From TrEMBL:
UniProt keyword annotation of Transmembrane present: yes
Domain of life: Bacteria
Organism: Alkalibacterium subtropicum
Keyword Cell division among UniProt keywords: no
Transmembrane region(s): 53-72, 78-96, 103-121, 127-149, 161-181, 187-206
Keywords linked to the UniProt accession: Membrane, Transmembrane, Transmembrane helix
Name of this chain's protein: Uncharacterized protein
Amino acid sequence: MKHCPACHADVKGDWERCPLCHTRLKDTKGQRSEDSDFPEVPLKFNRKKIRQILSLSSIVLIILYFTAHFIWRFQFFNLEYVLFGIMIMWLMMLVIIRKRRNIVKGIVYILFLFSLLSLYFDYINGWLGWSLTFVIPILCISALLAMFISIQVVNLRAEDYVLYLQLAAIVGLIPAVFLLLDWVVFSLPSLLSVVFSLVMSVAVFFKHRQAVIDELEKRMHV
């Protein structure tokens, strides 16, 4: 339990600053605190629904892979890359649910961690380019899918996630730089990341346009 010295409210969870006035919170462990005027309202989600959606999404992705392979009669990329993307999607979903009061922190953490690890291992193995060609675009797509699923199963208001989704979509556009600079040996993963990110960004903006504008004004103190 943490306490806001300005609002005199007790705040549960892993908040660093008061959600009301943004004052840095003080840790009250071992101290008896008064009842808060702003009790925590837990975010509700259905674990069974999460597993069902993730399982269905995983099956659909695998079916799409084999369908594309059957139609075009040549190997796009190995199945392990698809399985890697599915694993990342499940992992991101787990982080989002556990850290659901700071979704963007969990998403950015996983994106940067796995991206840096892939770049490092690609470098020490003679730089074959698989980190830029496959891993980073797949990470971007998986992040967007995980965030989209979390919104469906966690009780979040539009203003709680619109900027997070837009941020993830912007990150998903980074592979466009790889394409422009010809840093990839196979363009499909980067193209999918860019297209998926553009569609997600535009859809969120038009569906929650006012919420996006309000959040930008709030964050920029306009």
